[in-house]
Predict the structure.
Amino acid sequence: MAVIGLVVHELRQEAIDQAAELAQWLSEEGHEVHHPLIAEKSQLLDLVVSLGGDGSILRAVDLLGESEVPILGVNFGHLGYLTACEPSEVKDLITQVLDGQQSIEKRMMLQVKVSKSDGTLLGETHVLNDVVVERRGPTIRVGVTLDGSFFTSYAADGLIVATPTGSTAYAFSAQGPIVDAVHESIQVTPISAHMLFDRTMVLAPSTEIRVEVLGGRTALCNADGRELAVVEEGDQVVVTASSQVTQLVVPRNRHFAHVLKSKFGLEDR
């Protein structure tokens, strides 16, 4: 018997319907089902099934916290870059995962701490995709320090600090590079920079990135799309590699390049 949690996109009726069907089937197969999944139960789980899109997987990551439980994503979204299968395939894939017949990839995460200038902690969390410091109104100016050494200041709409998994999320739309998801690095990408230096920096995973808001304009710090804190002049956002990882179920026959071709509609020739 396995203990399985379900995370469902609450605005997609087809995902809600399949979750109910899936919960009944799993129970009939003798498994314990937690639906809906709550964070307090995450330590008990053997597998999480996320029914929705990439956002549902990010919600599952947040619910799991430090529990490194494999996540199987079922695509009810549009792109579904992080998902492993379509709705018609989920029962077979769950069976294969529980029998140890599917691959599980460990994905790098980031830890972010937001503090005021006096050291007061405003927020702290771990993310799979990215940390974004972005404007609330006009263009902002932020200073970037790498491993304790000041690098430069950016005048931009914001700054994205992403994992390789996050390189196909917000950073991709900001012209950042696509990085193999199992590679370990940290990408720093400015958003609509008002300066000549507007390229992504691909940094070693051991790098500490410190972002400080300069000038009198406030900004938002978002972690995997969720607002973490409002940051003002002198406040700092510190991003490092996390000790936590996310485990994603990935079909054995799925290569990184095949995912790119499929999700972005690339031609064979």
